[in-house]
Amino acid sequence: MRFVVGSHNSAQAVFLVEDDRAVNLSLAHPGVGADLMGLINAPALMAEIARVGLSGETLPVASITPALPVAKPGKVICLGLNYIDHIKEGGYDVPDYPALFMRSLNSLMAAGEPMVRPSCSERLDYEAELMLIIGTGGRHIAEADALDHVFGYTVFNDGSVRDYQRKTHQWTPGKNFDQTGPIGPFVVTPDELPDGATGLKIESRVGDEILQSANTSDMLWSVARTIATISEFTTLEPGDLIAMGTPPGVGHAKTPPRWLRPGETVEVEIEGIGICANPIVDEADWLRSTAAE
C-alpha cells in the first residue's frame, strides 16, 4: 500500500494512494487519525484497508498538501557513511560500526515545504536517503527478524550545513538547522518493495542537473542490520524514523562545491517510492513569510 499524510480542504488526514488518485482514510475508517500512528498501532485496521483498497470517493493526489507522515516521532536516528563511494569522497576511513546521529523535530519538514538556507551559512548541502518507519518496536532485535519491524519506507533529504557540521567531531549542529530535513510525501509498505528496499535507484537533482545517482543495494549496512544494531542500545518504538545514509555526489565533495541556492528546487527520488521536492529559500525571506501568515 501507498500512503500520504496531508491536508485537503484545510483538514489533515491519511490518504491511501493508487496512481494519481487517493481516498481519505481518516473519513472512511474511524481510528485512523491525522497521521500514520493510527495505522501503525492497529494491524487489524491495516488488514481491513488492504482488503477494501481504494474504494469510495477519490480525489487527485495533487490536491493534497503533504505533512509529516508521523507528526511527532519519538526518535529520528540517521546513518552517516553508509555508501563506500560517499565515504571515500569525504576522506573518511570505512568504519566497522555505523556512524549514527540524531535529528530534532524542528529540523524536519514535509515534502513541498521550503527548505531553509540559514543566514549564518551558504553551505547548505543535499543528501538523498532512504528512510524507514518502525512499525513494531523492540529491543535486541535479531537481524533475521528486523524487517518484520518495518511499517514502511519513505524518502528523506538530510539537508546538511557543512561548515557547522565540521565545527565539532559530533555532527549535531550541521544536521539540525530548522527546516532542513524534508520527508515524504509517500510512505510505501514493505510488501510493495524488494526486501529491505534493496535494488532501488536513488537520485537527487536540481532541474536537469543530476547531483547524485546510485542504488540502495550499495548500502554498507542494510536495513535489517541497521535495525538490529540500533536496537542493541535503545528500544525502538512504533513511529521511530531511521534514515539510511546518502550515496556519493554530495555538494561539498564537488569541485567547486555545489551548495543549494535560494530559488532552486531540489528533488530526491527513490524508485518505487516517489519524489520529495522542496524549494530552497533564504532564512530571512522565510522568516518574513511565516511572520506574515
Automatic annotation (TrEMBL):
<dbReference type="InterPro" id="IPR011234">
    <property type="entry name" value="Fumarylacetoacetase-like_C"/>
</dbReference>
<dbReference type="InterPro" id="IPR051121">
    <property type="entry name" value="FAH"/>
</dbReference>
<keyword id="KW-0378">Hydrolase</keyword>
<dbReference type="GO" id="GO:0016787">
    <property type="term" value="F:hydrolase activity"/>
</dbReference>
<feature type="domain" description="Fumarylacetoacetase-like C-terminal">
    <location>
        <begin position="75"/>
        <end position="281"/>
    </location>
</feature>
<dbReference type="GO" id="GO:0046872">
    <property type="term" value="F:metal ion binding"/>
</dbReference>
<dbReference type="GO" id="GO:0016853">
    <property type="term" value="F:isomerase activity"/>
</dbReference>
<dbReference type="Pfam" id="PF01557">
    <property type="entry name" value="FAA_hydrolase"/>
</dbReference>
<dbReference type="GO" id="GO:0019752">
    <property type="term" value="P:carboxylic acid metabolic process"/>
</dbReference>
<keyword id="KW-0479">Metal-binding</keyword>
<dbReference type="InterPro" id="IPR036663">
    <property type="entry name" value="Fumarylacetoacetase_C_sf"/>
</dbReference>
<comment type="similarity">
    <text>Belongs to the FAH family.</text>
</comment>
<protein>
    <submittedName>
        <fullName>Fumarylacetoacetate hydrolase family protein</fullName>
    </submittedName>
</protein>
